[in-house]
Amino acid sequence: MATTFIILKPDAVERGLVGEILGRFERRGLSFLALELRQLDKAVVQRHYIEHKDKPFYDDLVTFLTRGPVIVGVIEGPSQVVEIVRAMMGTTDSGKASPGTIRGDLAMLVDENLIHGSDSPEAAEREIGLFFPEFRLA
């Protein structure tokens, strides 16, 4: 078994889509090891998205992620869980996301696209450590 990390962004919470999105993962057979509703602070979001620091959308991204509550979570599944979750999410640009994906079915804007998921096992480990420092992976 392997783990990955997700954030249901403020737009998902505001639009009442948390149950719909989490249900998709459950129906796929994935398990939640941790789920928590949080109001993220600026410092944590800046550390989380440090790779985007010099990009023009960085400040807007930090502002967006801190504007309201989010759901942070750890998902467990087979060894390819990162790829499974990424495929379920769909491409970042919701206008290009395939039908059947979370973003393809539910997102309306490229910069408010409902969900973040780790893009590699290494990123998942880093992100889980950042948001759930008490969480120890076996």
TrEMBL record:
<feature type="binding site">
    <location>
        <position position="86"/>
    </location>
    <ligand>
        <name>ATP</name>
    </ligand>
</feature>
<feature type="binding site">
    <location>
        <position position="113"/>
    </location>
    <ligand>
        <name>ATP</name>
    </ligand>
</feature>
<feature type="binding site">
    <location>
        <position position="103"/>
    </location>
    <ligand>
        <name>ATP</name>
    </ligand>
</feature>
<dbReference type="InterPro" id="IPR036850">
    <property type="entry name" value="NDK-like_dom_sf"/>
</dbReference>
<feature type="active site" description="Pros-phosphohistidine intermediate">
    <location>
        <position position="116"/>
    </location>
</feature>
<protein>
    <recommendedName>
        <fullName>Nucleoside diphosphate kinase</fullName>
        <ecNumber>2.7.4.6</ecNumber>
    </recommendedName>
</protein>
<keyword id="KW-0067">ATP-binding</keyword>
<dbReference type="InterPro" id="IPR034907">
    <property type="entry name" value="NDK-like_dom"/>
</dbReference>
<comment type="similarity">
    <text>Belongs to the NDK family.</text>
</comment>
<feature type="binding site">
    <location>
        <position position="92"/>
    </location>
    <ligand>
        <name>ATP</name>
    </ligand>
</feature>
<keyword id="KW-0546">Nucleotide metabolism</keyword>
<keyword id="KW-0418">Kinase</keyword>
<keyword id="KW-0808">Transferase</keyword>
<keyword id="KW-0547">Nucleotide-binding</keyword>
<keyword id="KW-0479">Metal-binding</keyword>
<keyword id="KW-0963">Cytoplasm</keyword>
<dbReference type="GO" id="GO:0004550">
    <property type="term" value="F:nucleoside diphosphate kinase activity"/>
</dbReference>
<feature type="binding site">
    <location>
        <position position="9"/>
    </location>
    <ligand>
        <name>ATP</name>
    </ligand>
</feature>
<keyword id="KW-0597">Phosphoprotein</keyword>
<feature type="domain" description="Nucleoside diphosphate kinase-like">
    <location>
        <begin position="1"/>
        <end position="138"/>
    </location>
</feature>
<comment type="subunit">
    <text>Homotetramer.</text>
</comment>
<dbReference type="InterPro" id="IPR023005">
    <property type="entry name" value="Nucleoside_diP_kinase_AS"/>
</dbReference>
<dbReference type="Pfam" id="PF00334">
    <property type="entry name" value="NDK"/>
</dbReference>
<keyword id="KW-0460">Magnesium</keyword>
<comment type="function">
    <text>Major role in the synthesis of nucleoside triphosphates other than ATP. The ATP gamma phosphate is transferred to the NDP beta phosphate via a ping-pong mechanism, using a phosphorylated active-site intermediate.</text>
</comment>
<feature type="binding site">
    <location>
        <position position="57"/>
    </location>
    <ligand>
        <name>ATP</name>
    </ligand>
</feature>
<dbReference type="InterPro" id="IPR001564">
    <property type="entry name" value="Nucleoside_diP_kinase"/>
</dbReference>
